[in-house]
Amino acid sequence: MRDGAEAMNAVEVRQVAKQYRRFGRRKSFGTLKSAFLSGSLFGSLQPKEVFHALRGVSVDIEQGRTFGVIGRNGSGKSTLLKLIAGIGKPTSGTVTVHGRVSALIELGAGFHPEISGRDNVYINGMMLGLSRRDIAARFDDIVRFAELEEFIDAPVKTYSSGMYMRLGFAVAINVDPDVLLVDEVLAVGDEAFTHKCLDKFADLRRRGKTIVLVTHSLDLVQRFCDEALWLDGGLARLHGDPKRVIDAYLLDVADSEARQLARAAGSGPRAVMPDHGTDLRTGELPDMSKAAEGRWGSREAEIVGVVLERPDGTPAQTFQSGDPVAIRLRVHAPRPLQDFVFGVGIFNAEGTCCYGTNTQIEGAEPGELSGDAEAVLHIDRLDLVDGTYKLDVAVHKQNGVPYDYHRLMHTFRVTSRVKDTGIYRPPHRWTFSGGVRVAGV
Amino acid sequence: MIDSLRHLLRYRALIASLVARDLKARYRGSFLGFFWSFVNPLLLLLIYTFIFTTVVPSRGGSDETPFALFLFCGLLPWTWFSTALVESSSVLIAGGNLIRKVLFPAEVLPIVTVLSGLVHFCFGLPILAGFFVYFGTPVAPLDLLWLPLVVLVQLLLTLGLSLLISALTVHFRDLRDLVANLLTLWFWATPIVYALAQVPDRVRPIIGLNPFTHLVVAYRDALLTPGPFTSAPRLAVLAVAALGVFLFGYFVFDRLRDTLAEEV
Q1: What is the mean pLDDT of residues A361-371?
Q2: In this structure, are residues A132 and B20 in contact, taking their beta carbons and an 8 Å threshold?
């Protein structure tokens, strides 16, 4: 190790691509004969069809950082983790890891059910690269962490799945790695155990160890990680501050969900085209499954920008429930207009209109709209429940004929510590009287 | 490949533990655990002895060596060999979870299979000794010193084939059935129930190509055949061949190593 102001990289991933062979059905079963017939034994191992799990990913993970990897299923997260762990080699590119790696990819992989927990700890530890002496020194810690003092000499087949996992985790974490790779193992296991694992991670962090976490729990990434990487289709889509990466990811997921819904509706038998003239006065818009996102109108006035802002004026796409928010419409009208209405509608992921309003409903008399203009809807409290929402924004005539209608084109996210449900959260509190005692509300 | 072999040495404690685990797991929970491993060879022994001494008398054993003893000397190493190869053909697939999820040299698994077989083979030696006592057949102590060497040659040969089969079976699943059937053929192409001397001259060169022929002859020479150990040259050639098989098997395994995690 060198001393310097610059931090060392614990993991260096350079232009890593990984292709998996995809053999056809016939190839994977009746194979030996066809292998001989179609040429040499080894020639037949050449893939006919390949699946690109990673397509050139480069990332450096500094020593001591906790690094989250997020992305959809099949985006290459686990492949990346396995390559870092050294299970499999990249098809091209290089992976360099400084220090001892331990991978929590599957807990207790390799436990043998018939033999005792004690023997399994030794064998599992040796598989992970410890010597017999190392394990003997750590044995008590492992058993204590797994809370299996009484059962350690019983065969593992008598363990509950929780005990099994605790033991697997205890062994893997006590390898005392410099780089710990974790693949979604916290998703299983009860609350108490999860807390214990998180405590152990925190402990490793304090001691300057590097942790790479692959997970679907964005919450975990946001709370724990110093950095996050979003993988999409085998490419690094975004890398940086966890919150920023998560927000971008969530927006993308919501977008593609909406697209999928729209596509599903488009191919269905009751493909009703949305009424382009539907206005926001009644709030009776067709639900999201029938309407595609889109844009239409005469463009006599054009919405050139939609920005959601925090009170201090910074644009944002994620808000806490109850936050104030301003929806700013930037409009351009090449020629002066006397007949105009601004409208905004908020829809949740199910396509339910949570709220809709426009300047006409609220009694504003249009004067003149010309050149560049801005209309801002200030919402003092965004009392929506946790979820992803979409906006309709429009400028239209008083009779509903649109100049420019943006249908579900703008997405934002509301987060909330309280996971209540519904479409609307009135400001509320609980009070109690009589023979009831309650804490925490 | 040399690196891989050196790397493997670091895992010898793991290999030892896994062999111990194999044995423990096999014998735990079954009443006659140890005994069962020998029921099949003993049954075969009984059947062949009955057939070849009573139904179709054969002169496999000579007058002074009982047929059962003659047969057992070939059957015991064969049982180790064939069991190890059959198990090797499924060991990587059965341990697929390990290979895909834990970083450790995969060849540990077939090696453990072969070594567990070796331990069983050693457990069988006292039974063989019991036969010697029962029949009152003398053993030449000097010849007996050759036995470990013969075992070592068989170990090399079995390891090589086991590595080859285990790695290839991952890619060609039908190899498993092929191996099982090939072993039946191989059994009869080896002078186990008959003596090499009984084989007609026309066929003998073919039987002579079979490495296991020479192993069985060497085993019998060390254990049974009166007179000094005459199989030393035979064993030397076989040792070179076995080493070649081992290196080839390991080479193929090493080449296919990176594909294993993806294919199992």
Answers
A1: 89
A2: no
N-terminal to C-terminal alpha carbon distance within chain A: 52
3-state secondary structure chain A: CCCCCCCCEEEEEEEEEEEEECCCHHHHHCCHHHHHHCCCCCHHHCCCCEEEEEEEEEEEEECCCEEEEECCCCCCHHHHHHHHHCCCCCCEEEEEECCCEEEECCCCCCCCCCCEHHHHHHHHHHHCCCCHHHHHHHHHHHHHHHCCCCCCCCEHHHCCHHHHHHHHHHHHHCCCCCEEEEECHHHCCCHHHHHHHHHHHHHHHHCCCEEEEECCCHHHHHHHCCEEEEEECCEEEEEECHHHHHHHHHHHHHHHHHHHHHHHHHHCCCCCCCCCCCCCCCCCCCCCCCCCCEEECCCCCEEEEEEEECCCCCECCEEECCCCEEEEEEEEEEEEECCCEEEEEEEECCCCEEEEEECCCCCCCCCCEEEEEEEEEEECCCCCCCEEEEEEEEEECCCCCEEEEEEEEEEEEEECCCCCCCCCCCCCCCCCCCCCCCCCC
User: Mean pLDDT for each 10-residue chunk of chain B (264 residues)?
Assistant: 82 89 76 72 85 77 75 92 94 84 86 93 88 85 88 96 94 90 94 88 90 93 83 92 95 87 76
Partner residue facing B261 (CB), from A21, A87, A129: A87
pLDDT in tens, A30-53: 455 555 555 444 444 454 567 888
Domains of chain A, with CATH numbers? 297-415 (2.70.50.60)
Rounded Cα gap, residues A71 and A238, in angstroms: 10
**Residue A252 token pair:** 């993308």
Name which of A187, A212, A171 is nearest A13 in CA terms.
Answer: A212
Q: Could you tell me if B139 lies within 8 Å of chain A, comparing CB atoms? A: no
CA distance A30 to chain B (A): 7
More confident position, A20 or A284: A20
Interface contact B21, partner A, CB < 8 A: yes
**B151 Cα to chain A: minimum distance (Å):** 27
- Whether residue B102 and residue A35 make contact (CB cut-off 8 A), yes or no, is no
Label residue A268 left, alpha or beta by phi (over 0 means left) and psi (-120 to 50 means alpha): beta
**Gap from B258 CA to chain A (nearest CA, Å):** 6
Note whether A212 and A179 are within 8 A (CB): yes
Distance, CA of B69 to chain centre: 18
SS3 B70: helix
Give me B248's structure tokens.
């080839």
A408 pLDDT more than 70: yes
Between CA B235 and CA B149 the distance in angstroms is 9
What is the Cα–Cα distance from A239 to A366, expressed in whole angstroms? Answer: 46
Q: Report pLDDT for A265.
A: 57
Closest by Cβ to A115, choosing from B11, B25, B100: B25
Q: What does pTM read for this prediction?
A: 0.68
- The alpha carbon of A369 is separated from its chain's Cα centroid by a whole number of angstroms, namely 42
Say how far apart CA A316 and CA A325 lie, in whole Å: 9
Q: Contact A394/A343 with Cβ under 8 angstroms?
A: yes
What percent of chain B is helix, strand and coil (3-state, nearest 5)?
Answer: 80, 0, 20
Domain residue extents for chain B: 2-263
Tens of pLDDT along A149-202? Answer: 899 999 888 998 888 888 888 888 888 888 988 887 666 667 777 788 888 888
Is residue A330 within 8 Å of residue A301, measured between CB atoms?
Answer: no
Q: Is any Cβ of chain A less than 8 angstroms from the Cβ of B3? A: no
